[in-house]
User: Fold this.
Amino acid sequence: MSEWFDFAIEHLPYVLQGIPTTLGLWASAMVIGAALGLVLAWARIYGSRPIYLAATVYVEIFRGTPMLVQMLFIYLGLPEIGIVFDPLTAAIIAIGLNTAAYQAEYFRGAVRSVPVGQMAAARALGMGQFQGFKNIILPQALRRVIPQWSNEAILELKYTSIAYAIGVTEITARAEKIGYETFQFFEVFLLIAAIYVVMTSVVAQILLFVEKRVSVPGL
Amino acid sequence: MLLRVENIHKSYGDAEILKGVSFDMEPGQSKVIMGPSGTGKSTLLRCINHLTEPDQGHVFVDGEELTSKNLNAMRQKVAFVFQDFNLFTHLRTVDNVAIGPRKLRGFDKKAALDLAYQELDRVGLSDRADAYPAELSGGQQQRASIARALAMEPKLILFDEPTSALDPELTGEVVSVMNKLASEGMTMLVVSHEIGFARQAADEIIFMEGGKIIEQGPPSQIFEAPQQDRTRAFLNVIEHGGHE
Assistant:
């Protein structure tokens, strides 16, 4: 055990240098996913037939294909038609577009769970549909979606590791590099697993705090 | 004339709920719509501010016709109080009342809150301003939703069975607020079987059956000398405390 600690301390700085990449990739993708997810959810609830269909097709495609395939397609496939991204950008786009599909479904479920009387009351006051959505439905739906959204956020934090496949030097890529240099794969992946657990636990605690902080009786 | 309802028709599939309903209201009047359940009273009320779109007919408020274009502006003049309150769950009571003035009437935050406290005082709820709707009793929730309607300073308030979701011991506090508003000159159109309010505050009772108005007149006439057998039979049931 103490040997492992020595190993960990020796290689930790190099691995930790990848954390800004991992967290930056994750946070950017989650923000893209939340913004796009909300638009998709809106489209699937309130959109006209063509808009509803477009959003549904999007969700089905991005939920129905592996994220690794999506990432490889964006990074290696798109250059063939002249669209070129650096690895980190390609990874952000891939994870962002993918999580958007899932987040859209969580948002949609949360919006649907708000009783219809809430929108009726907003409309009866004189709010338009979008005003009612923004002022009344969304604040309630967002509170209700936090537990599911937290799950998704933690899932995506771990999924950032597949960006290593297209050459993003986040922490998993760094761990692998150390592994090949030292041939201590057991130690290095144990180290990296511990780092992921710490990160996901911190994120879970923060989101739990937010959930409690914004909770309202009766919601 | 404040409200003119002209020949409202509404069907759901094959079921014709409203078969041509017309009536008028003058400013300051209170009218109570009564009649057996399933007779289209609530549908009529919802058609008046187009929460339910009528198939046919016209609604005029202050001489201006309600259309899909002026809908949101017109609804600010015609407030609606729901049977099940529909207070905004995520907002404190005072914010429920303030949100209309804040978002729709161009009030700044302070002015909206000042007005909200004023309206809560009017319905006797100043002390519950900071509570969330889930922390209020049913009667308090309904009074808060009346305050929310009042904060729009509407020309007319529509009440859709405002006491029927309440336990009997809680209806009194809502009815007394409504009586007070009527005596202050608020124009009110109320779907209710609340005899107390109808006798004390209504200028006219509109009796509906089968999607039509079959009798209307001042409470004294409707309650003491109803012209129609159906009206008489119905009043007999509710006056004796039963439910039709």
